[in-house]
Structure formats: structure tokens, C-alpha cells
Automatic annotation (TrEMBL), chains A, B:
Domain of life: Bacteria
PANTHER family per the UniProt record, alphabetical: RE64534P (PTHR31527:SF0)
Organism of origin: Paracoccus siganidrum
Record-given protein name: Urea carboxylase-associated family protein
Matching InterPro entries: DUF1989
Domain DUF1989 stretches: 37-201
Lineage start: Bacteria, Pseudomonadati, Pseudomonadota, Alphaproteobacteria, Rhodobacterales
Length: 230, 230
């Protein structure tokens, strides 16, 4: 019987996934203006001080980024999609919107979005169970383990896995409530910029889904880039 | 400064809220065929064995019920709205749909729905922060604390607060992504029936929201009823 209570339920990532050991900048704190890669299929954590602005760049245009944010003082307080939706009274944030935690406090503001604004707040991060459902056998890189590993690389505990903000993921619900699974409509170089409203740790996973066309029609996972604006 | 890490952040429920001390049936296990009340503004937990069917009755027709389910062997595995939506590829479950956990296993099947089928999977349970946002001062009964109390009455720990299935809550997103806050369209006596697909603990909170018309145009919270079918 699989032990569902532990991460890496079906083995461990192989050596190509460095999410648990490679850290961006100095302990996750980036030099403003420096550009850092989130490698394809991997996750990284970034520390932000209140007022700092984080830009996530869709380098190749077709890549989904699963995005989380945790209060630095207590990772039990985090960006929460089910609190964000009723707070904004809409399914997707737009520039100018404050994004709230599970305690209904602003943790980030979305200050800029150069893309057509198609992001998802409805879908859990992929996990090993999802890949097994889709027919994959053995371990498969997944955003949930990337989150766990990226935080563990900074020594930060993760009490539970929140629903991510899925940047550029194109899974719009129709009026009848049915959802579609479509490639992103973003273009190479499109980016979103967040301003931190408290000291926080953000995590971005370059989604490793290669069994559905969620990362482009060719289903090839690619890298993302991040920078803290000067 | 409010300690956001603890429940009952702004005081404790007064003596009228018995969610932490009153238990349905024998330690939450109901005699099949017996009808039990979930009092207005309160929550109760119910233990179900795999195969048992739980009916939730909207006695007055206008009342929203926040609904959760946890694996009996591990409350870290629970009914999860962000896993349910992609699994069903739609926003709302319908009769015949299996409802999955955060580990993508079926925990319940929705076997029957006598109402028009308008339920919500998008909105977090109300909490003390929500009532303070709406202008209320001091403590206010809320579904999040009702969940905590109903589980604690059975001695069950709660690792995190999942997004509930909001039975009869009428907050449909429009095609443009905007959400409306509307009274329920259910009628007195409407009910939904779930079949347990594993041993589990369900929690139902008769939502105490009285500052928005989510529990009917008169914004008066009322009771619900539950029964385990013989």
C-alpha cells in the first residue's frame, strides 16, 4: 500500500531535479536586477521583503508556472485561491488586484501583466497521483513535490499544500461550468509582476506536465525566469 | 495584534454555539434512519463507514451548508475542491460523480440531488476575518470555527482548513469570470445524498452568514438536517 501521507510516494526525483538542493541567490534572496532561471520541470523559492517587486517571465511563452506565496513568519498563512476569489469577486486576478491569504490579508499585489491575462485559480498542482492516473508508471517530476523540495531547500516547513495560482494556465470554465484544457495564449517574454505586501517566501514550479498540452501544443516543459526589480 | 495562528482569534463563541461540546449519535455515528438537526449557526461531525449513505436536508430551503469530508485514518487526506474540479472537468458535481481527495482518491459519490444542483466549490468557508471585513465587531459564529469545533468534539485534529463544498450556495461565475452573490434556489426539503467510498468523517456547518443574502433574501441563518439512510 502506498503511504499517501509522505511526499515522493512513488520513488524520488532523479538527479536531474535539483529543486531540493539548488537555491537561488543568497538563501533565496535575489540581487535586484539579476535574472534567474527556474529550470524546466523544477521549482525554486524566493524570499521577498515587503515592497519588493518580483517579475516572473514566461521565457518561451508556452510554459505554465505554478505559483505560491507564504508569510515568512508563518507558512501556515499563505496565498489562498479560495479566499482570493470571493475577495475579488472574480475567478482571475488582474493588474491592481491585491491577492489575499487564508487569513484574508493582502500578501501580494499583481501590479503588471504583459500577457493576455489568462491564468488559473481553480486547479490543484500536479502530483504523483495525477501522473499515475494519466498512465505514467514510477516517479514523475510534479509541481507538488517541487513545492515541497523548494521550501525544504530553504529549511521552511510546509504544513499543507495550498491550491496554486497557475500562471498562464488556460483552463477556463464555460458558462455551463465545464472546463477546457488548452495551451497557454501567452507569448515569449510575457511576464507578470507582483509587489510583496508582507515579508514572504514565493515558490514557482515550471510545470513538468508532458502528458497533456497544458504547457503548449507540443507538451514540452520548458524553463521560466524570475527577477526582483531594482 | 491579533494572533492569526489560533482559532477564535477575536474571542470565543458564546454559550449558544454548542459545536465544540454536542455530538450527534454515538460519538458522531448515527443510527440509520434517525433524523438529526444541525442547529442554525453551528457545525456537527458525522462518522460514516464505507458504503453508508448520508443525506443532508435543506429543511427550510434557503440555508447554505458548508460541507467537508476527511479520511478517518488520516485527516490530512480530505475532500478537495481544487482536485475535484480538474477530476470532473467542471465546477460543480452532479449525481453520479465521484468526489476526490487531495490524493485524488474517491472519498464520496454524490448519488442524488433533489435540488436544482446549484452548489459552490469556489469559496472559502466564512471566518472571523470575513465578518470583521464586513464591519462586524467582536466574535461572530463562522463556518471555519464550526469545523474546528465539530472535529474537536470527536477528538479529531485538523491539520489545515480545506475549501468546503458549499451546498446550495449560489455564487456562479459568469463567462467573463465575475462572480455573483445570490440567494439559494433550493426549496424546503431539498436534499443531497452522498455514499461514502471510504471510512470518513463528514462535517456540516449551517452557515451563520447574516450580513449578506447568501442564506436567503432575509439573511436569516437556519438549521439543516442529516440522516444516514437505512
Amino acid at each position: 500500500m502506498i503511504d499517501f501521507s509522505r511526499p515522493f510516494a512513488a520513488g524520488r526525483p532523479d538527479g536531474t531535479n535539483a529543486s531540493a538542493r539548488e537555491v537561488l541567490g543568497h538563501d533565496g534572496r535575489l540581487e535586484p536586477g539579476s535574472l534567474h532561471e527556474i529550470p524546466a520541470r523544477q521549482g525554486r523559492a524566493i524570499r521577498l521583503r515587503r515592497g519588493e517587486r518580483l517579475r516572473v517571465v514566461n521565457t518561451h511563452g508556452s510554459q505554465v508556472g505554478d505559483f505560491w506565496a507564504f508569510a515568512e513568519t508563518d507558512p501556515g498563512e499563505h496565498l489562498s485561491m479560495e479566499h482570493l476569489r470571493p475577495d475579488l469577486r472574480k475567478l482571475r486576478p488582474e493588474p491592481g488586484d491585491a491577492l489575499v491569504t487564508n487569513r484574508r490579508r493582502a500578501i501580494l499585489t499583481l501590479v503588471e501583466d504583459s500577457s493576455p491575462g489568462v491564468h488559473d485559480t481553480l486547479v490543484a498542482s500536479c502530483d504523483i497521483h495525477r501522473y499515475h492516473q494519466l498512465g505514467h508508471e514510477g516517479y514523475h517530476d510534479n509541481c507538488t513535490d517541487n513545492l515541497r523540495m523548494a521550501l525544504s531547500a530553504l529549511g521552511i516547513p510546509l504544513p499543507a499544500v495550498p491550491c496554486p495560482l497557475n500562471l498562464w494556465m488556460n483552463t477556463p470554465p464555460r458558462e455551463n461550468g465545464e472546463m477546457a484544457w488548452l495551451p497557454p495564449v501567452s507569448r515569449p517574454g510575457d511576464h507578470v509582476t507582483f509587489r510583496a505586501e508582507m515579508d514572504l517566501v514565493a515558490v514557482i514550479s515550471a510545470c513538468p506536465m508532458d502528458l497533456l498540452p497544458i504547457n503548449g501544443a507540443d507538451a514540452v516543459p520548458r524553463s521560466l525566469s524570475v527577477t526582483v526589480l531594482p
